[in-house]
Amino acid sequence: MFYRLSGQFRTSYYEDNRLIGEKLERTVFIATMLVASIAIPLVASPYLLSAVLIPFLIFSLAALGLNILTGFAGQVSFGSAAFMAIGAFASFNLLLRVPAIPSLLAFLLGGMCASAIGVLFGLPSLRIRGFYLAASTLATQFFIVWCLSKVGWFTNYAASGVITVQHVAPLGFALDNHVSKYLFVLVVVTTLTVVASNLMRSNIGRSWMSIRDMDVAAEVIGINPLYAKLTAFAVSAFYCGIAGALYSYAYVSTVEPDGFSLDLSFKILFMIIIGGLGSILGSFIGAAFIVLLPIWLNVFFSAMEHFSGLKAPSGITSNVELIIFGGIIIVFLVVEPHGLARLWQRAKEKLQIWPLSH
Amino acid sequence: MQNAIPPLLQLRGISLRFGGVAALANISFDVQEHEVRAIIGPNGAGKSSMLNVINGIYCPQEGEIVFNGEKRTRMSTRMAAAAGFARTFQNIALFQGMTVLENVVAGRNLKFKASLLEQAVWFGRARREEAAQREKAEEVIEFMELERYRKKVVSQLPYGLQKRVELARALAAEPRILLLDEPMAGMNAEEKREMCRFILNSNRRDGTTIILIEHDMSVVMDISDRIVVLDYGRKIADGQPKCVRDNDEVIRAYLGRSERVG
Ligand SMILES: Nc1ncnc2c1ncn2[C@@H]1O[C@H](COP(=O)(O)OP(=O)(O)O)[C@@H](O)[C@H]1O
Ligand SMILES: [Mg+2]
């Protein structure tokens, strides 16, 4: 990134339209992918895989889903967890009730169920916006979770309402250990991230952003707000649905509808606020932050206990976590609505012209 | 001549009311293909409302619009875009979070045909289309001398440049009729001259029909073929610049507000 600048010219619009424009950034990306797919599975501990990396990737996907809707298309939503629930329970029921259905297909259809319901609940966005739309997505969130826990069929009449997901082997790749789960999640998340980047550099991505920025002008240049908004709801819910399926099949294994509560929706919303609204990279940064913060706090408090002998009151981590979230979110909303991703970008721009200032 | 060629756009008896306020009262005029048609008048005369009626943002209570031989009582904004109307706004209406390039390419959004799935996998038509439309957009960017700013986010640009980007976005659609609402407002003489050049160039080179709202009389007298004058929602004059300039009622309307015509 440092020494790109002059000398590197693009010779065609194909080239300039490429996903990752800079040569060095491409190298960094490839290196990251190599580390993530080869080095990490070889050396990472089961704890790192199952408690850090897998949830990080899954939440990144959910955050990306919400970011498509909120950050790119400008439609606020408090319902991301509900769409995760739909993805999870639809996959569960498909695998349970459709004989010999390939698990990959079940996940895909699970995501599509979320997508269809997302479109349905996105319909109000054609008439209402802002606060009222947010309130209607809140209703969506409660309604869907309520429905999944009240209608026994969805949980296969499990007495406790908790389901244990089936063992699956998508494309013959059994998800029975941490490494295989991690690799499967990595492949899915990477693929969907590339898809999201493609959408954002295409006409549909521009339609979403134009509806977000100035809807009257968008209509005046011929953009159909109905199509733009509903596709944003559909794609966003699909991403959240797939994240929900991964969450239950590659992360926790036992799930209940209440696990996909409003709390989780808020967590995902915090990720995109901290990471950066309208930034694909930001979805990952935000997810990393929110997954890592409680872990760091735990380490911090146990270290403190170890060295000072003071015992931290039980439950303090989660309380401190909430306080820190609250503080950070206020700071970001006030100071940098584009989140950590924008800070990173600015640092990068500075480095590009370093040591010359303008 | 006017009888020989039917006008491209005709407005007949347009009336528009907001509650008790009559923004437009029984306005009729026509626009010939390839001409530069100016709408002038004091603030609040109904000029912007007129443009909003033409491209369907407002729906008039009375009157009809004949475009290209087709009569319509109402036209949705999107239908207008598809029929070849493009416009700029009095208060800049750019997509502030997008780059100059993205704004200009968005202006061509109706030319994209690839499906959502093709766009998702960036394959075949989607990829080709993106490069082809990009090339067309670059032509406009070059024409508007915006090359240096193409990757800049619009909100970071100064006002004068934003006005230019907005014109670029409108031109990118290759419109048949261009509606410009005070494109030079708030600019200095130099910037105005440049803007005039862009507008006239598009008119002469591509034959774009232009309906222009502008307050600077010297500019209006210079570049327009015919002028409609509105005052309090009424049409008080209509004709070539020199006739309008000498019209008593126009002089009165302007003098009443201590502004000179011409
Ligand atoms: N959306 C609206 N709602 C209510 N009144 C409006 C609206 N748009 C315009 N008007 C009124 O219509 C009249 C003409 O406004 P406008 O067309 O903006 O004038 P101009 O562009 O000539 O300055 C004004 O009295 C204005 O207050
Ligand atoms: Mg006006």
Automatic annotation (TrEMBL), chain A:
This protein's UniProt keywords: Cell membrane, Membrane, Transmembrane, Transmembrane helix
GO molecular function: branched-chain amino acid transmembrane transporter activity
Compartments it resides in: Cell membrane
UniProt-listed InterPro entries: ABC_transp_permease (IPR001851), LivM-like (IPR043428)
Domain of life: Bacteria
Membrane topology, as annotated: Multi-pass membrane protein
Pfam families named among the record's database cross-references: BPD_transp_2
TM annotation in the entry: 27-44, 50-69, 76-95, 101-123, 130-151, 182-200, 230-252, 264-296, 316-335
Protein species of origin: Bradyrhizobium nitroreducens
GO cellular component terms, A-Z: plasma membrane
Keyword Transmembrane helix: yes
Entry keyword Iron: no
Protein name (record): ABC transporter permease
UniProtKB/TrEMBL annotation, chain B:
CDD domains, per database record: ABC_Mj1267_LivG_branched
Lineage: Bacteria, Pseudomonadati, Pseudomonadota, Alphaproteobacteria, Hyphomicrobiales
Superkingdom per UniProt: Bacteria
The entry's keywords: ATP-binding, Nucleotide-binding, Transport
Coiled-coil features, chain-numbered ranges: none
Protein function: Involved in beta-(1-->2)glucan export. Transmembrane domains (TMD) form a pore in the inner membrane and the ATP-binding domain (NBD) is responsible for energy generation.
GO molecular function per UniProt: ATP binding; ATP hydrolysis activity
PANTHER family for the chain: ABC TRANSPORTER ATP-BINDING PROTEIN, CONSERVED COMPONENT OF ABC TRANSPORTER FOR NATURAL AMINO ACIDS-RELATED
Protein name: ABC transporter domain-containing protein
PROSITE patterns the UniProt entry points to: ABC_TRANSPORTER_2
ABC transporter domain residues: 9-257
Nucleotide-binding in keyword set: yes
GO cellular component, one term: plasma membrane
